[in-house]
Amino acid sequence: MGLISQGEVVPAEALGRVHFIAIGGAGMSGIARIMLKRGIAVSGSDARDSELLAQLGDLGAKVFVGHDAAYLGDADTVVVSTAIREANPELVAARERGLRVLHRSAALAALMAGRRAVAVAGTHGKTTTTSMLTVALQHAGADPSYCIGGQLVTTGLGADEGRSDIFVAEADESDGSFLMYAPRIAVVTNVEADHLDNYGGFDEVKENFARFVDRVEPGGTLVLGADDPMAMELAAPARERGLTVLTYGVAAGADLRVSGFAPRGLGSRFEVEGVGEVRLGVPGRHNALNAAAVLAVGRALGVDLGAVRDGLAEFGGAMRRLEPKGEAAGVEVFDSYAHHPTELTADLSATRDYVQQKAEASGGPGGRIVAVFQPHLYSRTRFFAAEFGAALGLADVAVVLDVYGAREDPEPGVTGLMVAEHVPEGTVWEYVPDDAEVTAAVVRLAEPGDVVITLGAGDVTRLGPEILARLAAPAG
Description:
CATH topology of the largest domain: UDP-N-acetylmuramoyl-L-alanine:D-glutamate ligase
Number of domains: 3
Radius of gyration: 22 Å
CATH architecture of the largest domain: 3-Layer(aba) Sandwich
Largest sheet: 10 strands, mixed
Oligomer: single chain
CATH class of the largest domain: Alpha Beta
Strand content: 15-25%
Shape: globular
Number of helices: 15
CATH superfamily of the largest domain: Mur-like, catalytic domain
């Protein structure tokens, strides 16, 4: 796939008529939505019809199913993602006609230009942090524009145009596209090795995060996770550039220090120094840290922190971030986008807190955690098989699917079994490579009182409703 090169930002008003290739994707449709709200003429195509295409059509976009050079119409600018191949007939025609072709990140940068932009980056937590920040600022009356890599549970939207001059965006490091942005405020939650199919190694990952920080506007603010050593390495050079650095976390000396974390059902409460008690309706210690990052951004923006704190209490989550899917036959089912060992560890730890609280409330032994994990990408599975297996040891039962290849071709010998064989003793595991057999396997293993959590960035999310339906079906 390669890395996106930094380029000159074209102001949104200079883009003319804009055509999106694969407009139905979450990121592309969000950018198109904001452009339509700003009065920019938009068209787009996608391989299949969807509700997102219908929504964009209702907003005034010309949408097409399939790909054909004729769909370009009289477009001046064509927007693509890294998933679009050069042989796509619309892209071929755009090149032949000499049209402006922009990567999705450059189109987003065009929308952010001239706004008080907040870009949230990090190996983990950026989608939830961006979502929390959006909801908290809305509650505080700031009404930002926003573009998130996921969808808010409350609205079902991942992007929209707000009335204020604040623009909140998730900044994706996976292909280097975050280097297109020049934010007023940047957040780096953490820096870990990932996306090594694109990067030459962890040193290159760290170098790109340093370049991202260098993109922050002069006099701007950098918000850093104080508990992550690699993130904190960015602090000194940022201060040398004259940036204000705000830190958050449980570490001593953090500007917004988190303490007294206590899980409460599917939420938590904790203290943030200088703010007071904060309550969340989403589980996990990692989400307490995400909330502290939001408070740091609120401070940098000059927004009332009491209102931000109250907004955090109303945050209902982002889709696929420990999202409750339902309950049947005494079994609760959740869904998570977690696809890195650190993310599995965070979500399974949060689930363990929840299960233990249920046990304490009932006075019984409590149920088990049944983790259903689909590895994402052959390269990531090869790099992190042992770490994935270790993380699944936090569950009582692990069902491991085969690898979801996404953009990658299969690699000989790289399968989900590599992960399963690293699950430690004490956790029961099954490797189920046949997708058609997974639901039956989970239903066979799950017992009343258990919590099932589907994990992965592929199509494992489809299993939640299937598992619930099978559990709810009459015996036989």
